[in-house]
Amino acid sequence: MSQRLPARRFLYCLLQGDSFSPSLAEERTGLLLVDKNEPGEVAPSGRYDGKALPYGSAMLVLLDDDLEPGATALEPLRALKARLPDLRAVGVTGVSLFLVVAYEGQCHFELSPEELGEIAGLGVPLAVSCHPAAT
After folding, report:
1. What would the pLDDT profile of 48-61 be if each residue is shown by its tens digit?
2. Angle CA(104)–CA(110)–CA(112) in degrees, nearest 5?
3. 48-57 long-range contacts, Cβ below 8 Å, gap at least 24?
4. CB 71: neighbour CB atoms within 10 A?
5. What is the mean pLDDT of residues 31-56?
6. pTM
């Protein structure tokens, strides 16, 4: 992904499923998941605050300009596509991509034709959120 004006991009995949175990997914796929919630864990906040979660969830970070400025999302997107069958086999039923762009001035960013092709090839929704960069 390249951009014309200063912007920071964060692309991640949200994985969810009633029987999805993020720990088992990491073990079987080798992917590093963050913000993991196992089914049945007591939620510390949110709509299930103090109650057992009825599903498992985790995030897979695909791109973070704060860690790797100007990096491309091609390889992480390809790795996700290759691992989707394995993730579905361990209970993932919901997969969504989220692109968050923190901008200065105007929210201008680009996705290369190759990146768009990889995203489309996943067959999952993509949500885009733009907000002013924190100073």
Report:
1. 999 999 999 999 99
2. 155
3. 54/18, 55/16, 55/17, 55/18, 55/20, 56/16, 56/17, 56/18, 56/19, 56/20, 56/21, 56/22, 56/91, 57/14, 57/15, 57/16, 57/17, 57/20, 57/22
4. 16
5. 93
6. 0.88
